[in-house]
Amino acid sequence: MDFKKKIITDLYEINDSDVLPGYYKPKKTYITGLQTLDELLEKDKKREEDGFPRRIRLGRIVKRKGAKDNQVIIVPTTTEPKFEHDDSISQEQEDQTGGSGEGEEGEILGERPLEQESGSGAGPGQGDESEHEVGTNAFDLGKVLTEKFNLPNLKDKGKKRSLTKFTYDLTDRHRGFGQVIDKKGTLEQVIKTNIILGNVREEDEIDTEELIITPQDQVYRILSKEKDYENQAVVFFLRDYSGSMQGKPTEVICTQHLFIYSWLMYQYQNNVIPRFILHDSKAKEVPDFYTYYSSQVAGGTNIYPAYELVNQIVEMEHLTADYNIYVFHGTDGDDWDEDGRQMISETSKMLSYVNRIGITVAKNSWGLGGLSAVEKYLQRSNLLKERSDLIKMDVMPAETSDEKRIIEGIKILIS
Amino acid sequence: MYLIDQHTKGIMEECKSRARDAGLKFDKESLEYIVTNRDLIELSPRLMIPTLYDYWVNDVEVLKGKGIYKLYPNNPYETVINSRPAISYYNDNNPDWLNIMIFYHVIAHIDFFQNNIFFKHTWNDDFVGQALADKRLIDSLRSEYGRWVDYVIEFSRCIDNLVGYYDLLSESKLQFNMQTSEKVEFYFGEFLQEINKVPEMLIFKDIERYNDLILEQGSLGETSFFAEVKLKYPEFQAKFEKYLEKPKPKNNDLMEFIIENSSFLRKESNRWMISVINIIRNTALYFSPQSRTKIINEGWASYWHDELFRKDDRIKGHEVDYAIINAGVTSLSRVGLNPYAIGLRLIQYVEDLAEKGKLDFNFQKINQYEIIENYNKNTHKGKEAIFELRSNFSDFMLLNTFITQEFVNLHDLFVVGQRINEEHGTIEYYIKSRKSQDYKSMLLDKLQHPPKIFIDNKRTNEKNLYLVHQFEGKQLIKDYISDTMIGIEFLWGDQVQLETTEIYQIPPRSEDEEPKYENRRVLYTMKNKKIKKEFI
Description:
The complex is a heterodimer. Chain A is an alpha/beta fold. In chain A, about 30% of the residues lie in helices and about 20% in strands. Chain A is built from 12 helices and 14 strands. Chain A starts with 15 loop residues before the first helix and ends with a helix. Among the domains of chain B are: about 175-245, no CATH class; about 450-535, no CATH class. Chain B contains 24 helices and 11 strands. Chain B has a 5-stranded mixed β-sheet, covered by helices on one side. Chain B has a 4-stranded mixed β-sheet with strand order 1-2-4-3, with helices on one face. A two-stranded antiparallel sheet of chain B has the order 5-6. In chain B, helix 6 (about 145-160) crosses helix 14 (about 270-290), helix 6 crosses helix 24 (about 480-490) and helix 15 crosses helix 17 (about 340-355). The N and C termini of chain B lie far apart (about 55 Å). Chains A and B meet through helix 1, helix 2, strand 2, strand 3 and strand 4 of A and helix 2, helix 3, helix 4, helix 6 and helix 15 of B. Strand 3 (about 95-100) of chain A pairs antiparallel with strand 5 (about 415-420) of chain B.
């Protein structure tokens, strides 16, 4: 049985137009999109004046593997809040559906990889709806990017310290005139203009003779002054993806790490190398942010293996010589290793080379009363006080932390 | 958007006449349109009702470029809409034989809309015309009140799943003289049982006396009944008048309750909002039966397109083409649910039961296996039975009544479970159960079911609206609670409270322990757009 194909478990998901040919089938269209996004956002801003929460969120979608990290797509989304049953949490954990055919009870029909996106789930840690992209919804992701945080304790390391070196290159684009015409950019611009004019429709073939080309649509590259960046920092993202993290804690951590990641990519561009590590009771490195963001598992929790892995990587690759090293770790504070002996020893080792460790504890509602394991042993170890320039911890309740609180958290971690 | 051509319309009319001969009943007129992408921009966010009101959420959804039926999970989208005349939408350039199949499918849907009792409240008006009038009203209000119209639409839609659809249905069935007066209801209900705590025995006696008087004296009976009550309980009249003053939900319908009792809406300057809320409420009521009859409706349409198409001589030479498409629509999946397949098989199963006389009470009394197995009375009542089914059954009733072990065995159905295989690092799908109870409860769990939220009469007054969520094993989506309550507070004009149950996970303390859960009753209070949550 092919389990790559989507399994339909929702009775209401398929309709006549999906299964019967000949019925009219709605297709995507992009004509309206170009015209009204700004208007909608303008209206949405007015809601705050009227004292209501904003409803249109801008999803920033980061392209998956292969594509350049800076490529982003913005889509508006909204939800209509209602009192509705939440199917995701129930006493009975197992997700069921129907089936037919031969086989005894207990027989296995097929399997799919654990860390694959789970189809309908749209939240972080559950895979993303659109298969090839990773995104988050935020009202003001732009704010994070423009706030201009700075990486703390940034030091000159090795030979690669040319943050302020300049080169001249044909990198800037300019509409109307310039040195070399950018064919792809020009074509894009021509198409955009013609969509607005109604000359390009999805249902029709594009007739190039009908396209209108204005001089303003011609995009040129012009010679400009560029900072010559080189790798200066390695940033490790560590995320607890154990069972207890499910739901809100994962959402908070993923959102925060996406913010940090977006900000780093934006402000330091290629100057920062991100590395991603997931852990439950074991730790492993994953190749890209997409996998980091969308993986989930339901195991137990041990934190030290993740720190141990970072220490190993740093040692093996001799990273300390040439790079500033930053570690951001997100957890719900749960650790089976309650006295944190191994964890403290790995952390101490890490503190010998690291520029900053930023730990975010997004606490589950049941843990709000007392201190979590991580908080307890970190405080006992006195590291937070003694090495306060190198290690910061921020604790927030996962349930009620909104974007503002999450951004506040970033400031604490890098203060 | 334009009508199908005369040739294709001819095919449709021929299909209609054959369907009528087979026993389907539906209005004479129907409209078939060819639609293009451009029409879609207008149609899709409007549930395919061309005249539905404008609303910004629709624009956002169009922008997002999502498939249309995803927009309103509560209102499954139909390519044929339940209007008068019924309208259906098609692609251009379908071959004739394919049109014949789709037309039969559409005709069966129309028959279902126009005969199934759950659609009763939609039979008298043309919704398309009504929607147009509503749209014009909303447009004119918008020119006067601007974006506040959209707020009222938004906040009404927050609660448009809490309408008294079943109350509306039961009212329409009740004969006039069966409805007792409010006074009688209050007397036997709250007054005797809750205020005076009269023992049951005495209440029954009193009811008997009441019934006797009504039989003897007809409409005067009530007056003479209460003449005696006055002697026994001199305070009754005062208590009853006080009861009348208090706001109380007639039905379990939050929208209606707010319309009738909100002090905010009663203000002269806010009265226009009531008409907007009513539009949203009527739209929700109109679409309520759709999601409650998905399986039976699709099963019915699939049954008839198959039944009629195969006997149609106009399709000669396209039998194989048809078989491929039909299999795609109605085959049971190895893993997954297909409402077309399940619906079709249940209808065929019921037909078979009736044909053999197995729906008969005499049959149900038999308890010998061999007799049951080979029972066949050749009643020729199969068709009659499924027409009964289409007139009176909803999804819940169909599944609850006819998912039997016999049915599950007949089609080799089973419940598929999922579990983690840690060694392989995979999620396994396995056959969890072949028991009909398990299969039935799995299916019933998948049916759409809005939460039951009652208005607590005792704790509700002008200043406070107290809602109680009846917990049915699932908590409410927490993210939506605050925003929904902001909307209710706006319409109600004062504090709103919601009592509900939430499920909390107790974290496992060690690797071997399974996570445990506990249910906790919580109270949300919304006041001045601020939410407060406490455990009770």
